[in-house]
């Protein structure tokens, strides 16, 4: 009996390592403040020299604050910033530094929460299920591109438990105002007009969950001037199924975009996305990972159908404890040379170390 209890505690600890860590630094009179930070160092090896080197070593840090206003009303705020560790002390010192998140809001009883600021687009509610790879992944949820990843100017309403009536049923709605970034590098691609998104998910006690999300936003005039991707609207929908229990993690995502997936020369008129991840958490700290990621463009002007990305990834985490982890991953590119979109076809090996609290 004692041995089984120890095993259960170990499993709970190791599974908890995969979630974000935070340190509580203040909790008094209904006011609470947690700090979180992660230092990740990594190195990439590839046949393509442009993809080799220390490309993504960084520090990500910030806080989560909460204040109790009344018995039913709570205020909260979140801020997160990323600092690059690969830059010199010269003119390139600002490259790779960016605000990741920054929003504030109110939560009222069973009605849910409403917040505004830089946050995750609701399409990421689905894509997050396969964004679990040790190094790669997150290829289809572009940041600042039509609510697929992190975006600015988001008004978000969330309700977990469906007004406290249906356990496991979570719903959300989101509005994004126009963001014109045409004055920066790749800014036209990352611009957007007004739009909205919806998401819903249901989790069973067995660890199985299903989810879906949809987004539709206006496109800017500059975006319609591209060679590829025409239309007044950009749309994105995605569905997911996940199993997360008994040390096993399995997840798959299938979705489709219209005038919303960036490619060389603009956007794909249509793209089909499929992602799948399988992982197992050993009690000794190892967590091997196997994944398949693909995005295929359809009806691209002067090209037709073409792969945007397609690869398999084999990797692993090793958790020394809840704060320190080692990771490595090999990405086997499944694209061939001379593909229509001139996408890189090199295989890549990445490895690194992360400390978080």
Automatic annotation (TrEMBL):
<dbReference type="Pfam" id="PF00267">
    <property type="entry name" value="Porin_1"/>
</dbReference>
<protein>
    <submittedName>
        <fullName>Porin OmpC</fullName>
    </submittedName>
</protein>
<keyword id="KW-0472">Membrane</keyword>
<dbReference type="InterPro" id="IPR050298">
    <property type="entry name" value="Gram-neg_bact_OMP"/>
</dbReference>
<comment type="similarity">
    <text>Belongs to the Gram-negative porin family.</text>
</comment>
<keyword id="KW-0732">Signal</keyword>
<dbReference type="InterPro" id="IPR023614">
    <property type="entry name" value="Porin_dom_sf"/>
</dbReference>
<dbReference type="InterPro" id="IPR001897">
    <property type="entry name" value="Porin_gammaproteobac"/>
</dbReference>
<feature type="signal peptide">
    <location>
        <begin position="1"/>
        <end position="22"/>
    </location>
</feature>
<dbReference type="InterPro" id="IPR033900">
    <property type="entry name" value="Gram_neg_porin_domain"/>
</dbReference>
<dbReference type="InterPro" id="IPR001702">
    <property type="entry name" value="Porin_Gram-ve"/>
</dbReference>
């Amino acid at each position: 009996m004692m041995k089984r209890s120890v095993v259960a505690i170990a499993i709970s600890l190791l599974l908890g390592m995969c979630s974000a860590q935070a340190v509580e630094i203040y909790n008094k009179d209904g006011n609470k403040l947690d700090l979180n930070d992660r230092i990740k160092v990594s190195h990439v090896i590839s046949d393509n020299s442009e993809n080799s080197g220390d490309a993504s070593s960084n520090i990500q840090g910030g806080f989560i604050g909460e204040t109790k206003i009344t018995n039913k009303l709570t205020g909260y705020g979140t801020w997160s910033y990323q600092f690059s560790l690969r830059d010199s002390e010269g003119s390139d010192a600002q490259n790779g530094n960016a605000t990741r998140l920054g929003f504030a809001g109110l939560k009222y009883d069973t009605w849910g929460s409403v917040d505004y600021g830089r946050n995750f687009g609701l399409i990421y509610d689905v894509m997050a299920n396969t964004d679990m790879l040790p190094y790669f992944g997150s290829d289809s949820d572009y940041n600042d591109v039509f609510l697929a990843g992190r975006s600015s100017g988001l008004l978000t309403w969330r309700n977990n438990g469906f007004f406290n009536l249906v356990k496991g049923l979570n719903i959300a709605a989101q509005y994004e105002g126009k963001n014109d970034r045409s004055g920066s590098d790749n800014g036209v691609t990352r611009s957007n007009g007004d739009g909205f998104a919806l998401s819903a998910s249901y989790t069973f006690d067995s660890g199985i969950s299903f989810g879906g999300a949809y987004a539709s936003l206006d496109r800017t005039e500059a975006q319609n001037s591209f060679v590829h991707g025409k239309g007044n609207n950009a749309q994105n929908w995605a569905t997911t199924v996940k199993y997360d229990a008994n040390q096993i993690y399995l997840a798959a995502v299938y979705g489709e975009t219209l005038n919303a997936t960036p490619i060389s020369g603009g956007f794909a008129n249509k793209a089909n996305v499929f992602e799948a991840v399988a992982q197992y958490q050993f009690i000794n700290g190892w967590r091997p990972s196997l994944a398949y990621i693909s995005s295929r463009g359809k009806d691209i002007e002067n090209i037709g159908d073409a792969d945007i990305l397609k690869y398999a990834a084999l990797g692993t985490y090793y958790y020394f404890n809840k704060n320190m982890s080692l990771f490595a991953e090999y990405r086997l590119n499944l694209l061939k040379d001379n593909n229509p979109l001139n996408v890189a076809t090199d295989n890549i090996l990445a490895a690194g170390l992360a400390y978080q609290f």
